[in-house]
Write a structure and sequence with these properties.
95 residues; 7 strands
């Protein structure tokens, strides 16, 4: 399990999780189950075709702290993951 917080901007635009570094597991935002993901095997072999996962805008609290919770079945490392606004490619800053 991996847990972190992030502050989203004032926009209620939908976001995407770039699951680079993960393998197979589940994603939660603010206590809501977003999806199951499967981007790599336990040995790290890529699994096509999806690497970006949609997070509905209304599930993210604008201008507030938000929680992301990731369960990775094979112990994938989320340090390469990033959240981006859909359609903009802009990463969410954790500053």
């Amino acid at each position: 399990w991996w847990r972190a917080s992030f502050k989203a901007g004032s926009s209620a635009d939908p976001m995407l999780l770039d699951a680079t570094g993960l393998t197979k597991g589940q994603l939660y935002i603010n206590g809501r189950h977003v999806c199951r993901y499967f981007v790599a095997t336990g040995k790290g072999a890529p699994v096509a075709p999806q690497t970006m996962y949609f997070i509905p805008g209304p599930w993210v609290n604008p201008d507030q702290e938000n929680e992301i919770l990731i369960f990775d079945e094979h112990g994938g490392n989320p340090t390469k993951c990033r959240l981006v606004y859909a359609g903009q490619g802009t990463a969410i800053s954790d500053e």
